[in-house]
Write a structure and sequence with these properties.
- By secondary structure, the protein is an alpha/beta fold.
- The protein folds into two domains: 197 residues, Rossmann fold (3-Layer(aba) Sandwich); 122 residues, Arc Repressor Mutant, subunit A (Orthogonal Bundle), CATH 1.10.10.60.
- It contains 15 helices and ten strands.
- Strand 3 and strand 4 form a beta hairpin.
- The longest helix is centred in the C-terminal third of the chain and has 19 residues.
- The C terminus is likely disordered.
- InterPro entries: Class_I_gatase-like, DJ-1/PfpI, Homeodomain-like_sf, HTH_AraC, HTH_AraC-typ_CS, INH-QAR, Tscrpt_reg_AraC-type_HTH.
């Protein structure tokens, strides 16, 4: 049997523990399922010792000395500690050095910010948790950010969305190394999908749950969320908030990173999401409610946005109790 592949996971204070343990479980299970040690995991930090996690417990990390000269996979988890870690020059320098020795470089969730800070994603496509995608794009314009991907591969750079998406990423790495049969065996053992349906936008908060930063844009948000008697267009939205269409485009692009038309479409789909989760209304009735002429047109648009059909979305996220019944 070939020698085990060396997986180096670099951690820092405030990591999300599942970003570490999820991929590590995939790699270790691949060894159990295959009947041999296919991967060897090294957990290291810029300063060896006990490293506190976001979950409240410590992880013991080794120093980078003693690592093999050739690393198969470098993996950087995310977590609430990412912001401070971006200021840690020793950590960023360590990532750059280890990346130069690695066959592939990967990150889970906000770990992408650390790769970007080290210049390792310049000119590459990458993703991160949906909540932080716009910030990643703003801070690192040399990175092409895809906000809806569960994971992305660009050459030997792999990045994933948040938390459990690290498991999706690790399964994809196992599949790339050893084939789909082993990846399926690992997924069955861990009781998860080898590749989930749709993108991460289906898990993100709809516009209804977001807050605008200025009074004028709060009016935009309020109008979009108000029950519509008829389908709204950009001109009528601008009139309702007392600005010109050009000014509205500048405002929404700066605040939300979207055009007014995209916001209107998003509001209709957010309304549909809410109805699918909270009501028993047929899909055709929800389509009409959201301004679509036919169920087919609504289904096509919904699938294009979220990667799943309205029926699939309802089955996945349907509330088993009403919001009132769920209160203690």
């Amino acid at each position: 049997m070939p020698a085990p592949r060396d997986i180096v996971i670099v951690i820092y204070p405030g990591i999300e523990s599942l970003d570490l343990s999820g991929p590590a479980s995939v790699f270790s299970t691949a060894g159990h399922a295959g009947g041999s040690d296919r991967y060897r995991i090294h957990v290291v930090a810029a300063e060896p010792g006990a490293v506190p996690t976001e979950s409240g417990f410590d992880v013991c990390a080794k120093g980078a000395r003693g690592l093999p000269k050739q690393i198969d996979t470098l993996l950087v988890p995310g977590g609430l500690g990412t912001r401070e870690a971006m200021k840690d020059r020793a950590l960023i320098a360590l990532l750059a050095r280890l990346a130069a020795r690695s066959r592939r470089v990967t990150a889970v969730c906000s770990g992408a910010f650390l790769l970007a800070q080290a210049g390792l994603l310049d000119g590459r496509r990458a993703t991160t948790h949906w909540r932080y995608a716009a910030l990643l794009a703003r801070l690192f314009p040399a990175v092409s950010v895809a906000s809806d991907a569960i994971f992305i591969r660009d050459g030997n750079r792999w990045t994933s969305a948040g938390v459990t998406a690290g498991i999706d990423l690790a399964l994809a790495l196992v599949e790339a190394d050893h084939g789909r049969e082993l990846a399926l065996a690992v997924a069955r053992e861990l009781v998860c999908s080898v590749r989930r349906s749709g993108g991460q936008s289906q898990y993100s908060e709809p516009l209804a749950l977001q807050v605008a930063q200025t009074p004028r844009l709060e009016r935009v948000r309020s109008v979009l969320l108000a029950p519509a008697r008829k389908r709204m267009v950009v001109k009528s939205l601008a009139e309702r908030v007392h600005v010109g269409e050009r000014q509205l485009r500048r405002l929404t692009q700066r605040e939300f990173g979207q055009s007014p038309r995209q916001l209107l479409l998003g509001a209709r789909l957010a309304q549909a999401q809410q109805s699918l989760v909270d009501t028993d209304r047929p899909v055709r009735a929800i389509a009409r409610q959201c301004g679509y002429a036919t169920t087919e047109a609504f289904t096509r648009r919904f699938r294009a946005q979220f990667g799943v059909s309205p029926s699939h979305y309802r089955a996945q996220f349907r509330r088993t109790t009403s919001p009132t019944e769920a209160l203690p």
